[in-house]
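Input.
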Amino acid sequence: MFTNSTICRRLAKTLWFWVAGLVLVVSGAQAATVTWDGSSSTAWGTGANWSTGSTPGNTDSVVFDEDSTTRFTVDLAGTNRRTAGITFGSSTGTNAFTFTSSGGVVQVDAGGVTNNDTQTQTFSAGFTVRTAHTWNAASGGLTFNNVAFDANLTLSGANTIAINGTLTAGASRSLTNNSSGSVSINTFALGGTLTLAGSGTTNITSLTFAANRTITNNATGALNITGATATGNRRLTIAGTGSGTTTISGVAALNGGGITMNNANASTILSGANTYTGTTIITAGTLVAANNSALGTTAAGTTIASGATLGLQGGVDIGTEALTSVQGTGVGANGAIRNISGDNTVGGTVTYANATTIGSTAGTLTLSGTQTGTNRNLTFAGAGNVNVTGNITTGAGTLTKTGNGTLTLSGANTYTGATAIDGGTLIAGSDAALGTTAGGVTVANAATLAFQGGITIGNEALTVSGAGFGSSGAIRNISGNNTYQGGITFNADSTITSVADTLTLSGALGGTNRSLIFNGAGNTTVSGAISTGTGSLTMSGSGILTLSGANAYTGATTVSSGTLMLSGGADRISNSSTLSVSSGATFDLNGNNETVASISGAGNILLGGATLTSGTTTSTTFSGVISESGAVTKQGTGTLTLSGANSYTGLTTVSEGTLNIQNATALGTSAAGTTVSSGATLALQGGITVADETLTLTGTGAS
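Output.
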């Protein structure tokens, strides 16, 4: 007979055994680490091939160590094999494992795949990234065939990781590549957004997708895509915040789609002959065109947002591709359009939506299409060169040249804003290169305005300072007979250079006490009046400087080399200006009477039938040669010493002061004689003999 207490004790004992059994069952279900020994066959599904004597469960981690087996081929036998993780043990052997199957795949959870062996392990069977995990090629490489990218994946280690088949992402996935070894993916079938991270370089041979796709590149490592193929008209967007460069080197066959660049911190390089017909959109960062067809066909054009950059490199010509909505200073203020390297050409119309910087870091950028926009200011910057052969029609917008490069303008430009040359050289290669004459031109210190091609710039005001870029001349004639008709104001001592042919300055030249240097092997004609106060004028170089205006500067006139020629009438040089002609240099009156404050030097003076008058209270010596027909007159109370073998044929007049001659022919030929006025003196010195010179004397001589 059972009492209540007996029943209770038996129920309690039964419950204890039930709980204990449950604990044993649960304990037996805990994950284990199982090692392959292949003692029976190559089949994964044969329990005898594993250290536990049974096939690993889904939550077990498996180890493959070549020191524990003689079989290195693992056959899934058409069955999916799931495991928590796979580890390849460290060994000194030379055998590697290969996973094969006629249909099954290896499914790996959070434990991932780690290769501590020095050999490359190969998954010829399919592989599924079932749960987010890491592939660690720590000591040896990892090679996969087809991979189902069903969860986020991290790559690490120093050895090769290769997917030789297709990596298929059915939805948006993250790939973090921190590997320092080679990472390659043969085909990447992208079914959503791909987010990249990490410092390693990722190489994709073929990127395929069937809808608009985005690669969010947050990586610091490079992403290299050989080719991209879309089904239908699809857009590929490169976004993110990483600094890693994305390169698409093969064909981007996106049909009617296009490419969008939207990563402010990085560059995307398109170096393939792309065939897409849609718009290329540069929202942020730099998109580099490194192929003539990098931007696809020219059908839809390219847009460049403020702060973004279209870069060009490698000597490309992108044809008549229209660039629209161009604006801003670009990435790093290096230009919304930027020539990175090589001689590159943009032949399409460029429409500016706001003030814009065009930069050239190196090489030459040619813009052969129309540059247009409503009252848009343009800045050309950089150490490289830019040629604008198309017309600039930007209304009241200004044009500014900065940087050490050369900007050449040769179109029929109609902009009416000011032109500022703040650095480097601006070459005007057409009559309307500087736009209309309304805005005026300013050349800053260490900058140059140059001319070439036989052009005439109208009556545009020009303000100039300094010796020019590289001391090559603030105004510089490169080639051809060129004319600048506008008035020129000098805000500092300045240099005008003519390298070849003739530069004509027909407007007035002014400035407050500014000295001017004219140099070069070419010629310069100044037909406008020079009114630079007490500033001096120096002619150097081997060319000819012709002064034909009624000049009013009062500083010294120095002919250091070459020829200074007068034209257009008497007194082209102020009577207050001293004249110095260096040895080998020439001062040519060219038949125009001239009065200067004094004469000095050892060069040549050509009278050409004119009279040269010199004289102040200053005493000077001229040891050069005065020649040709014409006369010499000495005025002023000072002493003029002539010690050269002069050959001029006209009258010598000593009106005031003393004329000291120290050469037998100092008075030229004896044809016209010499006249000494009352109060003046003719002095002879040095044991000379003056033969057959008629001398007319009046008065008592100089006191």
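DSSP finds one helix and 70 strands in the chain.
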